[in-house]
Amino acid sequence: MSGTTMRTVTFCTRLLLVPLLALAAGCLYRMPVQQGNMLDESQVSQLQTGMTRSQVLYLLGTPMVPDGFNNQRWDYYHYINMGRGDQATRRLTVWFSNDTVSRIEDSRAKPAASSGTTDAPAQDTPPAG
């Protein structure tokens, strides 16, 4: 083989190799990354005002970020990245007063409906007359 033919074969090999590597890069496995406290929905639903600190510890575990400045607040934080851009976060804050739960803030909680309203959508009725 002459030098020109060898360069052409090398160039064609590289030209085919680049798209093949680009295609293979899209098939790489990306491991899910979880950080914080895994908050199980059945455990969170059992959380109630009036529970003691030890009951909350037993139910949810140790808070991820203990607040050194406010002893009356425990923060539970969970973050998951599925590897392909799908991310989910959840923050649960438990407030204490006299060593019992006084308030619970959940980033996934649905807003409470105001009194006198229903969850059913309003239906349009044509005006009479």
At CATH level 2, the architecture of the largest domain is: 2-Layer Sandwich
* Shape verdict: rod-shaped
Biggest β-sheet: count, sense, barrel?
Answer: 5 strands, antiparallel
Which secondary-structure class do the elements indicate?
alpha+beta
SSE order, one letter for each helix or strand? HEHHEEEE
Radius of gyration, in Å, reads 28 Å
Tally of separate domains: 2
**First-to-last CA distance:** 96 Å
According to CATH, what is the class of the largest domain? Alpha Beta
Helix content: 25-40%
Number of strands: 5
Mean pLDDT: 76
Number of helices: 3
Question: What does the secondary structure layout of this molecule look like, with pairings?
Answer:
Layout: H1 3-25, E1 33-36, H2 41-46, H3 53-60, E2 65-66, E3 73-81, E4 87-97, E5 100-106
Antiparallel strand pairs: 1-3, 2-3, 3-4, 4-5
Descriptive account of the structure:
With 129 residues, the chain is α+β, with helices and mostly antiparallel strands. It is built from 3 helices and 5 strands, in the order H-E-H-H-E-E-E-E. A hairpin with a 6-residue loop joins strand 2 and strand 3. The C terminus is likely disordered.
